[in-house]
Amino acid sequence: MRKLFIILAVLLGIAGSRAEEHSYVWNAEFPNYKQQIPSSDFTTADGLFRFTSDKAQGVSGPQFNEDKNAGLLLRLYADNTLRIESLSGDPITDITFVIGGNGHYKLANLTPSKGAMGEPYIGKDATDTFREYRLFWSGNATDITFTVGHLCEYGIDCAEQGKTDEPGTCMTKQIIITTASGQGLEDLQDGEATPRKIIYNGQVYILRSGHSYTLTGTEVIPQK
């Protein structure tokens, strides 16, 4: 059993899962934000993700607000938190925070509870007209909380104007989430010899030759 588990562990990252990208532009996703209290907490219309923001240790609290150039922005301020949950149970592997409008002035870095932030993109949109910065997260989790940096780090005010003591912000006009989706146990064919990673009810299993195993190598019998 130990030998089998080692083989399965090697193949775990490449077998039985597929990447799915979900893009949410706040103008289209949340046009009636003023009717909800608090307006900055919501579940996406497709039911896949829940966003929960909090003032936490910040001075100002999160809010949705219109921006004349970027449309609807989810505005997070210094030391605010944003929790993103995958309601399907599929693990989130990448998140792109698309920063627009006034979000360019005091953009801070984010500190994630899991995974890691990558190098930011500091540039313009596809039309080369408007500034459109991006922050990138990668990892493997179904529940991540991000904390906005206390001070500006990438924004115009601190990076170009030298105002390094300005409080940070993270103002997104869009968020792009990539998940690793697995196949359900009840959908698999018996007799498959190649080890495969599958996800069922939010739990990860390995299937091989018609048998399913937990990640510790214990065989389980799925409920049909």
So how many helices? 3
Low-confidence stretches are 1-16, 183-192
Profile the largest sheet.
7 strands, antiparallel
The helix fraction, in percent, is: under 10%
The radius of gyration computed from the alpha-carbon positions, rounded to a whole number of angstroms, is: 21 Å
Describe this structure as you would to a colleague.
Residues 1-16 and 183-192 have low confidence and may be disordered. The chain is elongated. Helix content is 8%, strand content 42%. The protein is mainly beta. The strands form three sheets. Strands 1, 4, 5, 7, 9, 10 and 12 form a seven-stranded antiparallel β-sheet that branches. Strands 2-3-6-11-8 form a five-stranded antiparallel β-sheet, with no helix packed on it. Strands 13-14-15-16 form a four-stranded antiparallel β-sheet, with no helix packed on it. A hairpin with a 5-residue loop joins strand 15 and strand 16. It has helices at 2-11, 26-29, 156-159; strands at 17-25, 42-43, 49-54, 63-67, 71-77, 81-86, 92-99, 110-112, 116-117, 133-141, 143-148, 169-182, 196-200, 203-208, 211-213, 219-220.
How would you summarize this macromolecular structure in one to three sentences?
This protein is mostly beta strands. The protein contains three helices and 16 strands. The strands form three sheets. Strands 1, 4, 5, 7, 9, 10 and 12 form a seven-stranded antiparallel β-sheet that branches. The chain has a five-stranded antiparallel β-sheet with strand order 2-3-6-11-8, with no helix packed on it.
